[in-house]
Hints:
Elements: E1 5-7, H1 12-21, E2 26-28, H2 34-39, E3 47-50, E4 60-63, E5 66-70, H3 75-80, H4 82-87, H5 89-96, H6 101-106, H7 109-115, H8 122-129, E6 132-135, E7 139-141, H9 142-145, E8 146-148, E9 151-152, E10 160-166, E11 170-177, E12 184-193, E13 196-202, E14 210-211, H10 213-221, H11 247-266
Parallel strand pairs: 1-3, 2-3
Antiparallel strand pairs: 4-5, 5-10, 6-7, 6-10, 8-9, 11-12, 12-13, 13-14
Amino acid sequence: MYAFDFHRPATLRQANSLVGKLGDAKILAGGQTLLPTMKQRLASPSAVIDLSGVPELAGIEQKGRNLVIGAMTSHAEVATSALVTAALPGLAALAGGIGDPHVRHKGTIGGSIANNDPAADYPAGLLALGATIVTNRRKMPAAEFFTGMFSTALDEGEIITKVIVPIGAKFAYAKFRNPASRYAMVGVAVGKKGSSVVVAVTGAGSDGVFRWTEAEAALGKRFNAKSLDGITNPAAKDLNSDIHASAEYRSHLIGVMARRAVTGATAK
Length: 268
């Protein structure tokens, strides 16, 4: 690890000021990606801004028909929250299936979506739920926020402050996980609110999370796992093929995980 300056602001205002002053500084949320890459000298920022001392960035509350989750809220807190469990049990289950206990207690929802790992769970879940990402500058729907592999719509110096998740949807997430990393080799999130259905796939696409529109159309007519029978999996999405699974196997898993997610959503 190369030498760097460490800053731990106590308020969002202080964090904004530091980000503006320090050109190549990196923001530290949970550190589950940043710290390993720094230890391996794959990243060498001159400064690190730790947001763990900013209380206004953490916590979960319900406001009207939305859950508001602070960016520094850990996966474990989302998984065990009484509010989340009551309003969106599928989201609590998603958070509870991330990594291992260490990752769940240190990793944060804001850090996860800012990194936008192509095999991460939250991007698919938030896309299927129609969530809104709030930063220190603006609000963005999840559909506009996730732009590609390890890529988001965040601008330089922009800090995620919270995530707004509508409640009242039928929602579930199912994944086939890598037994070592617990990342999704394929994960499918399905959300239905009114007549609108969103099916979001993670872990399979070479460009990150994407929507399976053919499945959405079929489920929009009849929200049942059998509606996916005969639906062509999105092989045109340039699926990943690696030592863990071929593109053909991932294509098969998309259908399997989608059916499980639909079944889970209809059971709640």
